[in-house]
């Protein structure tokens, strides 16, 4: 409730001023009363809840922004919580899978290389070659509970330095767990032209009985765990192999294979 403050009474006028004779020249002016003062008290909660009309739209914009920020923060917290929970669950599942199945990468090695159509003394060597490589690869699947399906669509290439000599594909087969499989590939090349530097280097390597070759194999596979098969996974195998000659009786003198797996 507002309190009203009443103005004070004017001070009483002097009797001398009332009884002054009319012949006196001095005139006394009556003092003016002070302006009335009012104090209005408004409850504090009403001040915050009911803004002035000229600031009403500012207040509405502020409250809307504050509400949107609070909703965004709430949604972000929920999203982070869900992602964290999924990561934890995936980590637990991966740990259980590893301790139950103990997966490990298969081991690959080149066992034999037989070469045809690489007569370095014939006139065709300086023009174009049509070589044929018969390659035998040893695949060792040492997993006790995991099988491997080698699917169609693979590619195999044989290189000397950066020159591709021939290509082919991997046979389609299934390799069970705890199994060693020897598979053969026939790689062919048509009208392969080597540069002059590659021709000279190849002749020198054959003379030294040490011809370095590179085998690049890419194969789509599916992993079988129990009765469940995965989606197609790409296996990449790069093998550095050295043979003593480029004939059907070539002997592997050095070999080294590297294995990579692309899950997607």
UniProtKB/TrEMBL annotation:
**Which InterPro entries does the UniProt entry name for this protein?**
LEA_2 (IPR004864), NDR1-like (IPR044839)
Q: Where in the cell is it found?
A: Membrane
Please tell me where this protein is predominantly located: membrane
Q: Which Pfam families match?
A: LEA_2
Comp. bias intervals (Polar residues): 11-21
Example of a GO cellular component annotation carried by this entry = plasma membrane
Q: Does the keyword Zinc apply?
A: no
What is one GO biological process annotated to this record? defense response to other organism
Where do the segments described as Disordered lie? 1-33
- Top-level lineage group: Eukaryota
- The chain positions of domain Late embryogenesis abundant protein LEA-2 subgroup read 136-239
Q: Which UniProt keywords apply?
A: Membrane, Transmembrane, Transmembrane helix
Q: Where are the transmembrane segments?
A: 73-101
Membrane topology value: Single-pass membrane protein
Give the protein name, as stated in the record.
Answer: Late embryogenesis abundant protein LEA-2 subgroup domain-containing protein
